[in-house]
Please model this.
Amino acid sequence: MILVFIEHSGPEVALWSRSVISAALEAKSAHGYRRAAGLLVGGKNAVLAAREASYYGLDQVYYIDTVQTASHPACVDAAVLRQVCLRLGVMLLLAGASSRAKSFMPRTAHMLGAGMVSEAVAFLPDGAFRRMMYAGSAYAEVEVLTKIKAATIQQSAFAAAPKLDAGCEVCCLDEACPAPLQEEIIACSSADDGRPELRDARVVVSGGRAFSNAGEFAAHVGALADCLGAAVGASRSAVDAGCAPNSAQVGQTGKVVSPDLYVALGISGAIQHLAGMHGAKTVVAVNSDPAAPVFEESDYYLVGDVCSVVPELCRELKSI
Amino acid sequence: MARILVPLKRVPDFEGRLALSAGQRSIECSGLRWIMNPFDEIALEGALRLRETRGGVEEIVALSAGGVECAQQLRTALAMGADRAVLVRCESELDSYLTAEIIAAVYKQARYDMVIAGKQAVDTDANQTGQILAAILGVPLAPFASAVSVDERWSSAEVTCEVDSGWETLRIALPAVITVDLRLNEPRYPSLPGMISAKMKPLQEVPLNALGIEYGVRVRTRSMQLAGKQRKRIKVETVKSLAHVIREVLARQEH
Model:
């Protein structure tokens, strides 16, 4: 059977986990598995989120509600998931490409003797997987040679599973939280800016090095984002320059987004940034350099200084 | 006194010029410039700074696996300040799992207090090796580090890790595996005296079959294909028309 690790925030299933459910349903038919189940790990919200998760087309949803905090370290997920996989006889383990899953999935896979594919974008009919390499410049077909297999899923390649009228069975597992903990979270921060989550957003406005400081970045990228109800993204160089938090980074080493509309402001178009925006349906770019590589990767582009274009664009958008 | 192991990968600097080899199984390597994986360079810089600021470091060892050409990147590591280097010689393709097994075998040859490596290699983009290594060794993991501090006795570390929503700080006992993200530091350039002394520092070659690793790869790349999406590339002349384009795109998506 296939097991999907479903992430949740409070009682809500994360949107990217619904893409992983879609991927699991595709793997079920393409790779010939009999069942696809989900697993949620957490405290009292796990049962609420599990009930919601049961409506997306899985055959069964399991939850563990004895892990007290939502912010438990990833080593807990790694160990719990191993126990559950052995108990249920899981042959394909799937999770999203969140920072948390990137931390625990390779560990769990190793503990199960499983080979793992990172950020799969397709399941091929002969049992192989497709994934991107070289900052999204190349697709690779990869074979997993182990009996048990594991993969994280590139969210942008699978639409979120739609909600059905009827749910599947929801079942509590009593796996114990393993002690001792190898890692302890002693502090955390959230860069929540009240805007849509970058990976899930329908519209993303991203800024690059054309902005000289964080204030200028916020005044332009933030303003256009708010005008369009968009999430804010940034190029690696804008993050390096301190213009935007790392959690906003779009690209090979940041987040991969798949919005309907991606607006690139003052972004030159380095290959490592393009890797994060390949999945956008439509790309609009503004840059003062007429030879900016980003224009090659755009559907519509305007040559101009972002600091003068953006305020005018916001006014125009409001007047339409 | 602490020992730090820094595994590093030789990767192509392929910005914009990727081509596939005749068999479509890998990229065409001729004509490419080869560099140390940028994240591994940051990891090495992190190790060097721990020695300079925390102290108590006996040895920083750079490790790579592959053909004889990997010695070039190990020499760069020695020039930056690593004390000695180990090159595990193998010609076959490695996956994240086998790479982690190689690092684990070298780790077990000496008493190391920390393995610090890049979070991913910029060619294969797997982001798995450090995590698998922690699982093989049964030691704590702090992935995607943007700050690392170690106590005086090198018994524990506090590591700030980049996570989707911002950051979280992990406290871990040492020995441990740390993988590093972009913002940990800006790596130094090798100095001229560094480059000269690098030639005198030991670079030990070890054949893969001397490490006693029983298994092979778990994941194999069977073919590759160049990706590319043809965009429309329509030039818009005025901000007003750009605003209309954006409104039309959004209206179309709603239907």
Remarks:
- Chain B has six helices and 13 strands.
- Residues 2-227 of chain B form a domain with the Rossmann fold fold (CATH 3.40.50.620).
- Helices of chain B lie at 38-53, 71-80, 96-107, 129-137, 192-198, 239-254.
- The first strand of chain B starts at residue 2 and ends at 7.
